[in-house]
Amino acid sequence: MIQNHLFSRLDAYRKQMTACVAATAWLRRGVSVLLLVSLLFASACAMIDEDQSDCGDSYRIGYELRLVTNMSTKLQTELNLTSDVYVATELRSYLRDIFTDKAHDIDLSFYDVDTEQHRLYHWIDTIDANQTSYTLHLPMREYMHLCAANLEDNLLVDLDGDEYCNSARLLQRPLNTRAAAVDTIRPHKTGLFTARQAMDVLEGIDQSFDVHLYMANCATALVLDTAGSDLRDIKVLTTGFATSFSLRDSTYQFTDSVVVVNDLLPYEQGSKLCFASVNFPSRDNREPDTKSIIEVTEPFIAESSREALWTMFVRATLADHTVTETVLSMNKPLRAGQLEIIKAFVRSDGAVVPTGSASEVGATVTLDWKEGGGHDIEL
Questions:
Q1: Higher pLDDT, 62 or 22
Q2: Looking at the predicted structure, is the pLDDT value of residue 347 above 70?
Q3: Which of 201, 109, 92, 89 shows the shortest CA–CA distance to 151?
Q4: 114-121 contacts: CB < 8 A, separation 24 or more?
Q5: Which has the least CB within 10 A, 4, 60, 140, 326?
Q6: Per-residue model confidence as pLDDT tens digits over 226-244
Q7: What is the pLDDT of residues 2-47, one digit of tens each?
Q8: What would the 3-class secondary structure string for 69-123 be?
Q9: CA–CA separation, 64 vs 133, rounded Å?
Q10: What number is the average pLDDT over the span 182-206?
Q11: Are 46 and 128 a contacting pair, CB within 8 Å?
Q12: Average pLDDT, the chain
């Protein structure tokens, strides 16, 4: 572990750097937990003997996760019937580690601002809090600071290319082990948060930097009323989402075709099924290269696009083993921090018909659908 390696180096230079190292830590109860640790980067001071002026002064940098989401509102408005209670309960449980302002782990990188923007210092910590702060000893200079939270337990997303600021990104891992036209992925397992901060560390001045981390992924749910249908099986796939997220400019990339295999929530009551997914956002209808939207008052209000921005494929296998495919097309963007719930009922022939607020969703039905000669999606 990077943290263990860092402290082992500090032990080796303890006598030389006594004047440079001070550590204080405390834990405060409540939703706002502050952890203060005095951190000295060994690579900055290890070569210093008596003269430790290049170690820099102490600078406080505080981090706070800011959750901007419509989850509670969406659950209350879309799943407000008595027959929806068990669905809402299970969906809320499924999303408990997604729409949360608590971070288990945090990854901090400080980069040079020269042309290459290579990483100067790197720190990984476990905080289990929604706030944390550190007192750093950094050499006087300009830095670009990037951070990401909740990567450790996500299982689907890694920090990639982070040796350099311009290439640092959150990258999904596909399920495919062979080359294919389309990658398949499972839903993300944690809510991901990121931030960027330009820092100009000055000599002899007490400074404090506040960094606000915002959510980088989102979620969908398809609630199907199967009363009156005779189904052997049903699968839901979604597509149209970003494949990676650039931390330096908060921009999503759509470089590959990705299909998300949705999770069927595990409850055994009623006639309603709920399929859910957690993934990166869709394209925004205002920008070809979609940026993370965090600065508007109502970040989830958007005009409809002329074309579908993201799509659901619902494949229902009937009692006679034939398959009916319904393609649901969404013309409004799905943004970071957003939960979109679509309700529909399944006809006896397996066709899916959107209802309620989802009645404007486009639906195309293919009876007796058969897998084409293209990509064989791994389920």
A1: 62
A2: yes
A3: 109
A4: 116/164, 117/144, 117/164, 117/165, 117/166, 118/163, 118/164, 118/165, 119/162, 119/163, 119/164, 119/165, 120/43, 121/41, 121/43, 121/44
A5: 4
A6: 998 989 999 999 999 999 9
A7: 333 333 333 433 333 333 333 333 323 332 323 333 343 333 332 2
A8: CCHHHHHHHHCCCHHHHHHHHHHHHHCCCCCCCCEEEEEEEEECCCCCCEEEEEE
A9: 9
A10: 92
A11: no
A12: 83
180 — pLDDT class (breaks 50, 70, 90): low
**pLDDT given for residue 205 in this prediction:** 85
Amino acid at 89: T
Residue with the two structure tokens 């069927």: 264
Task: Show the tokens assigned to 175.
Answer: 């399920």
Q: What is the 3-state secondary structure (H, E, C) of the chain?
A: CHHHHHHHHHHHCCCCCHHHCCCCCCCCCCCCCCCEEEEECHHHHCCCCCCCHHHCCEEEEEEEEECCCCHHHHHHHHCCCHHHHHHHHHHHHHCCCCCCCCEEEEEEEEECCCCCCEEEEEEEEEEEECEEEEEEECCCEEEEEEEEECCCCCCCEEEECCCEHHHCEEEECCCCCCCCCCEEECCCCCCCEEEEEEEEECCCCCEEEEEEEEECCEEEEEEEECCCCCEEEEEEEEECECCEEECCCCEEECCCCEEEECEECCCCCCCEEEEEEEECCECECCECCCECCCCCCCCCCCCCCCCCCEEEEEEEEECCCCEEEEEEEECCCCCCCCEEEEEEEECCCCCEEECHHHCCCEEEEECCCCCCCCCCCCC
The rounded Cα 350 to chain-centroid distance in angstroms is 33
Rounded CA gap, 150 and 324, in Å? 38
